[in-house]
User: What shape does this take?
Amino acid sequence: MLFKEYRSVFVEQLSPLYDEKEVESFFYIVLECFHQLKRIDLALNPDLEMDSLQLLRWESVVIELKKQKPIQYILGETEFYGLSFLVNENTLIPRPETEELVDLIIKENQNQSSEIKIIDIGTGSGCIAISLAKNLPNARVSAIDVSEKALLTATKNAEINQVKVNFILKNILETDDLAEQFDVIVSNPPYVRMLEKAEIKANVLEYEPHLALFVDDNDALLFYRKIAQLAQKNLTQKGKLYFEINQYLGKETVGLLENLGFKNVRLIQDVYGNDRMISCELNTETEH
Assistant: This one.
């Protein structure tokens, strides 16, 4: 069968579940993953054929997509900040909003002439830590996660992307000290409240790790408070704390940080206009 013919079959099978643009994006993601071909390659070679074994492989993807399994988990990989990452049921799928957080940190720290020490708390696939290590040559990067399986994936991702990251198995909620001083502390912690479950798509709810997604409605800022308290002890005097946040709790998170004595607390919107990131610094005039 010609690839261009199968494309119509692929779209027809999945269009009842997904909108057409999404199905098209799935098609070209699989095309690149399975055959290292891009959209332009198909346009320039309209007579490209797939054999029966290749067709079976594509059909297995369709079966999984019909179950609403995320395409990234089906293929076992995704792209983040121009790098390739393995992902599985033990790691969240990296999101474009998190790329914006990484981009902000790189832009604000790329002109450092001396070594910069960074720690990523709740690293998952390692996407934040590895992207920072790759793009900040002077960075010495550490990363913490509570999941041993997530750290195994993150370690493989560091190898794939040829960077050195010090991965640490640790429950941040049971940690009283990070043991050394850091110039940058960054975290994209669990921040989705149970009451927001109705907004979450089935493919996220059924497949992505709830441990990395959800917090109790009654204490939605639990991780932010704990990490900010650790930052009070373990951030260097000119260091910065960066968070990805729940878009509905921007003002509350800013208030929490200001009440803990942080200064220059900035609430930053993502490309969609949602409150998505915060950066702040220690107030060195207060006790540190």
